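Q: Hi! First time asking for a complex rather than a single chain. Here are the components, and I think there are two in total. Is that enough to go on?
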Amino acid sequence: MRYGFGVDLGGTTVKIAYFDENGTLLTKWEIPTRTEQQGENILPDIAQSVLDFIRRENAQNIIGIGIGVPGPVSSDGVVNRCVNLGWGVFNVAQELTRLTGLPAVAGNDATVAALGECWKGSGKGCKNMLFATLGTGVGGGLIVGGHVLHGAYGAGGEIGHMILDPREPELSNCGKHGTVEQYCSATGIVRLAKKALSETDCPSSLRSESALTCKAVFDAAKAGDSLANQVLEQVYACLGLFLANVACVVNPEVIVLGGGVSKAGQMLLDGVRPHFAANVFHACSHVRFAIAELGNDAGAYGAFKLILEQAGV
Amino acid sequence: MRYGFGVDLGGTTVKIAYFDENGTLLTKWEIPTRTEQQGENILPDIAQSVLDFIRRENAQNIIGIGIGVPGPVSSDGVVNRCVNLGWGVFNVAQELTRLTGLPAVAGNDATVAALGECWKGSGKGCKNMLFATLGTGVGGGLIVGGHVLHGAYGAGGEIGHMILDPREPELSNCGKHGTVEQYCSATGIVRLAKKALSETDCPSSLRSESALTCKAVFDAAKAGDSLANQVLEQVYACLGLFLANVACVVNPEVIVLGGGVSKAGQMLLDGVRPHFAANVFHACSHVRFAIAELGNDAGAYGAFKLILEQAGV
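A: Yes, that's all I need. Here is the structure of the assembled complex.
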């Protein structure tokens, strides 16, 4: 039996998991992401942690390390700026190999999480999957014909930056008007709720929240709050339209929703489905919807799958 | 040297081309598409034409036949309704093999044309290409990582059915509001021009056209007609937004525009580029734009490439 590491590198913590070649997660741990000094400590910290583990456990038959990073990564392992980490342009995979002596491969975090869900989660057995993470922002990863869609410069699946409504007066984080993130992320849902609260006098339990959260909007809607339900209806409409448009491009068999917003579970799926059906082209309408199963481990699973594939296992 | 056939099956004519294994088009001809009786004669007519050619020319070392059809085709060759041909659901590739005794493979026409342009046309050497045909409708084909994106049910690249503006009052052919086809096809451009003519009193040379065409709109704009230029500005804005959204999904290296509208050439590219740049996510913005080079032969080239790939040549 051989073994390897799947690493999910986030803006605040690094999740490291140790797998056997069948994809059984044997153990996992976290280390902080030190973003100071343009993030120059991040890869050395990861390398140290992995090497410490190998020495401590006397681990052998190591295939290598797969890593998902929060930015575009081209298929040769070059990252093209990770704003959250302070990183510029360099070859992450090569650097990780230099630091550990182990084979390494890098991918975009959302794409790698998609691969994880497709391998061991909600997309198991599917060859064409759309994975959308609805969190602080909206990320995406696509599996087409059984393979990760990287795109020409590693920016395939950047679906949160698609523009849904060019007439939106407010600006998105990336300086555009009406991006998917402005309506379908947790941040976007809170934005829409605040807007609805300020624009109307409707009574709503959300008015008493000191710091409005996405979860509070879902909870209020579940409890029958009509303003919260109107806000979510708007969110579902945007999400259904957006996913229908992506489905026309890639014709997925399954759409998996992950990220914080997906904790709303069945309520979210039930809300989105009719809007998806109303907007999608008929030939792309046969889609199963699912909530991500692997939670925060999806990235580690997918990162390990990347190194397995590279090793030809 | 081996040889084979590339067939582009359209609603009125079938284009058949004969290639050598290097992809040199040696000869080509057309036969009518007989759509009566649910199109039951179409494949027998093609088979007969191909077999006649082989006998007449004493052709040998035939690899097989690739065919592009106007509808979704799954990767095993099953077509899922071609409305224009009267076809239901059946295995086109198998049927063509039964009729000719030759290996056969089938793909969607726009996807196959994309493969042709990527192999021998404007996308030569690219592994990630978005091909959009702006004709009576808007079709699309995607090459990702060097391979055709089929999707789960052969409906990948159906980008003309994406929805650009849900507030559009008019209905599209497929019963939706605000699809890409309503703004970016030749039909859509004529629709927008007629709308502009009826809604304003602006003088325009287009008012004297008895049957308004897309070409007339471009010609008038080139001659300085201000209403025609306003209409095209709207078309460019829609096209730029649409292509930017697709680019966020698949991150292409090159976007190739084909179909009748693309005859506007450089004028079209110059019009679209700034709107694309204004809407696309920065990591997906490094895109070369080009006009399709193979014209009506793209489908035949791509269909032949399909059978080459299947034969492992």
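A: Chain A touches chain B through 45 residues (CB under 8 Å). Let me know if you'd like any chain examined more closely.
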